[in-house]
Specification:
The chain is an all-alpha fold. The protein is built from five helices and no strands. The protein is elongated and about 45 Å long.
Length: 108
């Protein structure tokens, strides 16, 4: 990814990780720009939201301890993604990051 693209989209990349509202703001403000860096982080955050929903379902209906463990993994993954967004890097989340990019590839 070009340095200019990263520099231009760094702020919205960070905003995309600040709750669901931040994600919607990042998408709305990037519709015209089509900055690839911002959409990279938007796709990662969408995947993290899916992980959060899955962990909540598991906690409620499967096993409380298992759901809590998944929630902790989701939180640590969110921190990991946020740190790399602040650094200005487009680093995939280990294990699931590439899947998130493929699942939400229509966001361009």
């Amino acid at each position: 990814m070009e340095q200019h693209t990263v520099k231009e989209g760094k702020t919205l990349g960070i905003v995309s990780y600040l709750t669901f509202i931040g994600l919607l703001i990042a998408i709305a403000l990037n519709i015209e720009k089509k900055n690839a860096y911002i959409f990279f982080h938007v796709r990662q955050m969408l995947g993290l939201i899916l992980m959060l929903i899955f962990s909540n379902i598991c906690e409620r209906y499967v096993n409380s301890w298992f759901g809590t463990a998944l929630w902790i993994i989701t939180f640590l993954s969110w921190v990991y993604c946020l740190i790399y967004s602040i650094k200005g890097e487009a680093k995939l989340l280990p294990f699931l990051g590439q899947h998130f990019q493929n699942w939400f590839k229509n966001l361009k």
